[in-house]
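As noted in the main text, all predictions were made from sequence alone. Below is one such record, for MFS transporter.
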Amino acid sequence: MTSPRPRRSHFVDLAPLRESPAFARLWIGGTIAGIGAQLTVLAVGLQLYELTRSTLAVGLVGGIALLPMLVAGLWGGVLADALDRRRLLIVSASTTWAATAALVAVSAVSAAEHEAGRAVALWPFYALTTVISVCATVTGATRTAVTPRLLAPALVSRAAALSGIGIGVQLTLGPALGGLLVASIGYPLTFTVDLVLFSAGFLGILTLPAVPPSPVEAGAARRRGFAALADGFRFLRGAPNIRAGFLIDLAAMTFGRPYALLPAVGAVAIGGGAATAGALTAAFAVGTFLTSLLSGRVMHVRRYGLAIGRSVIAYGACIAGFGVVIAVVLAGRSPSGDTALSLPALLVAAVLLAGAGAADEVSAIFRSTMLMTAVPDELQGRMQGVFQVVVTGGPRLGDLWVGILATAVALWFPPLFGGLLVVAAAVAILRLQRGFRDYDARTPTP
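Prediction:
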């Protein structure tokens, strides 16, 4: 594969899609499947809130899945270094599809029981969403570990930007579609739509070429098993820049993730119910999408650590501002409990979440590129596994964080306090980790 000549444009570079048809199919299939996955994330939260009227019950979706996801991310990374990555993707995607099909049935039974006034068991929701989350962690680690095999090194940062567009599309269309479908056709059929959309993900996976482990990968991971995982952690201990990237993202996703609050925000604060929850989730994704669309100049940025730190500071500030909006709206609500839609509050909240999405995408592009270019290929699976633990485990911790604090203090407290914590963490990491702050993409150093 030859590296294309650098270009100067503000728009995203589509060269990875042109240069690698396998990457293009994987990207398209993953994006369509991801729309359905985000649709289900919103619908599960809405149905649990409708059944329980508890933000904590919504937050427990992430909290219960956390430990299994930690194990899946780490061990999935070992498997990605030891097995054919295409086959591993097929197994994890098939399991996700089966769990989503079971969720359709559980949703239908629960809706009928609730309508009849009978008690509804919540554990099937938690069990199935845990299976889906575990498989998503394995799939994410393996899919990203495949990318450097399909593309020339110069295209990796542009592929990371395209991944941001895919995520932006998923987070924009998925929640918005989910809110509309829940309001119009109900929960079971909404989950059925996810089944149909998820099937598109098999297009990119099944048409991949075989991606066997290299001799170094196969020898380390197959011969030593858990020792291969230990090798990954030893590498991470000696990789301060990769470690700092993990820590700064973990802080942002743990303390600055407001998604579990959105059903309650739509119901008792801003108003508008499920449609508001979907719109606010989509607003975050709009920021992600627009940033990725205008990412053509990312290849000219060299100071990755500084770019990551500044973008995370902006992210925390936007999340804190979202908490202020909720506090102001709740303070202005009449004691009678009127929850009519407040359009000005919705617009301001949407702008702040779009800003958070934009800042998060800047950070994601450079963190992903740093990981894919500074880590040796024989360790890609294991480091991508740790990365998936951070990017998927952090949000689950965040869901639990906001669920507990919103219940114990107030709805506005978790985003306001958490956003300020994110800013403080980013400032501290930039000050304390000089190598991370001065990271230069021309000499990738883990």
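Residues 15-437 form a domain with the Growth Hormone; Chain: A; fold (CATH 1.20.1250.20). The mean pLDDT is 82. These features were considered when defining construct boundaries for the mutagenesis experiments described in Section 2.9.
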